[in-house]
């Protein structure tokens, strides 16, 4: 069944304040600030103490703008963004090329289970090119469905013939086409996300499909309740 590629933000930690605290590490560690009992209030307490007790410290927004302008990336690694994605294999590979930017990545494996849902992606923009686009769109759809059918038939018959099921599952996936989709978990720091975004968004000469996915990611970061990354996004022109 054809599906759009998608990304869903399912968790996050930190934001503007954790980026600021990371930048002010040497400052606040020398101040002997009494930490609140509630660990969730400690970052805010540090920020308030520094801003209220220093005549030279800029506010959080000003600090983050300065860091971005001067290309000081390390403070922006002190937050996390956890996405689950469903993408075709080509987009999956594009993300893996940025493994340094991702803190962690884990995808469903065709080695351990038979892929029964048969998710796949079709390039909708082909349909903009009249009968030729429609014809090739239909050819790709039919070819993908045929290959998926062969995959399941191969698994069934080789297992019935006595082949080890674990080996069959990992080798029958060769029938799967490049537009087959995989589910994956991806964990980024804010800086890691920026590295991927600025190289792969829709304004870059990159693959359309990954551009659409990273644009979805950005919109979901913007939509987090309370907008914890507002000043960080603005510092990089992404507000």
What would you say this structure looks like, in words?
The chain is 47% helix and 13% strand. α1 crosses α3 (42-52) and α6 runs antiparallel to α7 (165-172). It has a four-stranded antiparallel β-sheet with strand order 1-2-4-3. It folds into two domains: 8-83 and 186-235, no CATH class; 87-97 and 108-181, no CATH class. The chain has helices at 16-23, 25-29, 42-52, 60-69, 89-96, 130-160, 165-172, 190-200, 208-222, 230-235; strands spanning 6-13, 80-88, 102-107, 181-188. With 239 residues, the chain is α+β, with helices and mostly antiparallel strands. It is elongated, with a radius of gyration of 23 Å. The model has no long low-confidence stretch (mean pLDDT 90).
Low-confidence stretches: none
Question: How would you characterize the largest beta sheet?
Answer: 4 strands, antiparallel
Our Rg estimate from Cα atoms comes to: 23 Å
| Mean pLDDT over all positions | 90
Q: Could you tell me how far the N terminus lies from the C terminus, measured between alpha carbons in angstroms?
A: 36 Å
Query: Helix segment count?
Result: 10
Number of strands: 4
Instruction: Supply the helix-strand structural class.
Output: alpha+beta
Instruction: Please indicate the percent range of residues in DSSP E strands (runs of 2 or more).
Output: 5-15%
Count up the domains: 2
Q: What proportion of the residues is helical, as a percent range? A: 40-55%
> Can you write the helix and strand succession as a string?
EHHHHEHEHHEHHH
Overall shape: it is: elongated
Strand order of the largest sheet: 1-2-4-3
